[in-house]
Amino acid sequence: MTTPAAAPAALAPMTGVPASAAPAGADPLAGLHDIHLPQPVPFWPPAPGWWILAGLIVLALIAAAIYEWRRRQTLGYRALRALEAIEKDSEHYRDAHAAAAASALLIRRIVVTRFGRERLAGLTGDRWQTFLSEGKNGLPAEVSRLVAVAAYAPPGGAGVSVERATVFEAVRGWIRGNA
Q1: What pLDDT, in 10s, does the model give residues 116-148?
Q2: Residue 18 forms beta bridges with which residues?
Q3: Could you tell me if residue 18 is inside a domain?
Q4: How many C-beta neighbours within 10 Å does residue 64 have?
Q5: What is the superkingdom listed in this entry's lineage (predicted)?
Q6: FRET label pair with 49: which of 39, 75, 146, 159, CA 20 to 30 Å apart?
Q7: Are 139 and 149 in contact (CB under 8 A)?
Q8: Owning domain of residue 120
């Protein structure tokens, strides 16, 4: 068993340095080292939360691209692009009659694609005009009359006076509601 007096002689109090190495009367704190600060946090690699956020952003961009691609594949989108091409070609479609004749062909293609050839391809005359003006997105009466006969009547022979811009506006609304 050690004597209580022998223990303090072996170690200097609270320094962990043997008593023989510490001179008597020396500052016991002089043997301590400075505190070492940790390294600065690096920019790369990011924390897992940033990886998750980047992954979610990439997924959102992919989902948006797929949504936009599918939207562009729809009948309505393609029909509106075709109508815009007709509207811009003012050399061939100068007046409302020519615009209505081209629009009638476009509408007929939409109807056959959407509702089937057997059901609606045979509609002509008053029945075709009634079909075009039905529903909340139907064409106005004057425009539907012009569109129904424009493909078959001679220029100016439709008996309807409608502005060219009115035809395109009405057909655009019809496409948005029916295609």
Answers
A1: 888 777 788 889 999 999 988 899 999 999 999
A2: 11
A3: no
A4: 10
A5: Bacteria
A6: 39
A7: no
A8: 75-178
